[in-house]
Every structure is written in structure tokens, then in C-alpha cells.
């Protein structure tokens, strides 16, 4: 967990906001119930001047200041206040039962608007990773050993094949 946040902070310090945003987006996809990630990403976009993108990630958070409210309003207007478009854009894959009251009201209002306008509610496959168990996906030690063994086996087959082919050629010409 700390490693990913450290990398994000380093990316921000080094001026690599896009890289930091990409990392945060990936974390949001893996841990959709952790709203602190959305707030952090919204803050980065806000500081960069992308108010509509900030609003996208702040829409489910309770507004803490006027900047958050304004960004969410700009975001809503950019999608014509369409519940369906907003739901498709924010792609919330978390557990709705874990939402706080404010976020639940927003989701319900967006779903009702979507149902009224399009006769459907966008549904996204839920993610089930737990909050606070952030870790990078790394190849396990056994997987690495298996890959090396496979490569070694292929090389061994090639070497043995060359020796067998040499023996066959020598036996044809030695008679």
C-alpha cells in the first residue's frame, strides 16, 4: 500500500501528473469502495485546472468546499445532467451498500434519471478487492521459476535435437 502511494507522491513531486493519475485510476478500478482515492485524483485534476474531471471524481463525495461544488456542477453540465451518461462515465464498480448517505443519494438520483430517460440503468461488474490492501501485482517466485524451467527445457530440446540431427547425418554418410 505504502509503496503505491509513495510512487504517486514521487510522480507528483517530479511533475509526472499523468503517471500519478494513471496509477490512481488503476487503484480506483481495483478498490472502488475507497473514496479517498477518488478525492485524491479529483484534487490532482483540480490543481491542474481540469475542473470537469475533478468533478467526475468528486461527484460521489460530500462537498467540503465551494471548489468541489463548482467542479461537480461543471462536470454535470458537461454531460447535460444526464444520469445515464454520468453513470457510464464514473463507472462505479463498488458495493452500493458501503456508500455513505450522500453518495447513495447521488447514485439513486442518477439511476432514477437514467431509468426515466433511457429505460435502463448501466450495470458494471463489481470488484471485490478489500480497501487498504493495496499491493502491486507481481509475478510470484514460483511463476518465475516455472518460466525459467520452460525456457531451459526448450533450449535443451533444441540442443538435443541438433545432436540427434548430427548423429543422423553422420550415420547416413558413414556407411
What order do the helices and strands come in, and which of them pair?
Layout: H1 2-13, H2 17-30, H3 35-48, H4 51-58, H5 66-78, H6 83-90, H7 101-118, H8 141-173
**Number of beta strands:** 0
Secondary structural class: mainly alpha
Mean pLDDT: 87
Shape: elongated
Radius of gyration, whole Å: 26 Å
Poorly predicted runs: none
Order of helices and strands: HHHHHHHH
Strand percentage lies at under 5%
Can you walk me through this structure?
Helices cover 69% and strands 0% of the residues. The relative contact order is 0.10. It is an all-alpha fold and 175 residues long. Helix 2 (17-30) runs antiparallel to helix 3 (35-48) and helix 3 packs antiparallel against helix 4 (51-58). The chain has helices at residues 2-13, 17-30, 35-48, 51-58, 66-78, 83-90, 101-118, 141-173.
Short description:
With 175 residues, the protein is mainly alpha-helical. Helices cover 69% and strands 0% of the residues.
Essential attributes:
175 residues; mainly alpha; 8 helices; 0% strand; elongated
Amino acid at each position: 500500500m505504502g509503496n503505491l502511494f509513495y510512487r504517486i507522491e514521487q510522480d507528483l513531486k517530479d511533475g509526472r501528473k499523468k503517471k500519478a493519475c494513471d496509477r490512481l485510476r488503476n487503484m480506483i478500478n481495483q478498490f472502488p469502495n475507497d473514496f479517498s482515492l477518488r478525492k485524491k485524483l479529483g484534487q490532482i485534476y483540480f490543481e491542474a485546472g481540469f475542473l470537469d474531471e475533478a468533478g467526475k471524481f468528486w461527484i460521489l463525495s460530500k462537498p467540503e468546499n465551494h471548489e468541489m461544488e463548482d467542479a461537480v456542477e461543471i462536470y454535470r453540465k458537461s454531460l447535460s445532467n444526464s444520469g445515464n451518461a454520468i453513470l457510464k462515465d464514473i463507472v462505479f464498480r463498488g458495493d452500493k451498500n458501503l456508500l455513505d448517505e450522500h453518495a447513495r443519494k447521488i447514485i439513486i438520483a442518477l439511476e432514477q434519471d437514467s431509468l426515466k430517460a433511457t429505460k435502463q440503468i448501466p450495470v458494471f461488474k463489481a470488484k471485490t478487492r478489500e480497501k487498504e490492501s493495496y499491493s502491486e501485482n507481481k509475478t510470484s517466485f514460483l511463476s518465475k521459476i516455472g518460466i525459467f524451467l520452460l525456457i531451459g527445457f526448450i533450449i535443451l530440446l533444441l540442443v538435443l535435437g541438433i545432436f540427434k540431427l548430427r548423429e543422423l547425418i553422420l550415420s547416413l554418410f558413414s556407411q
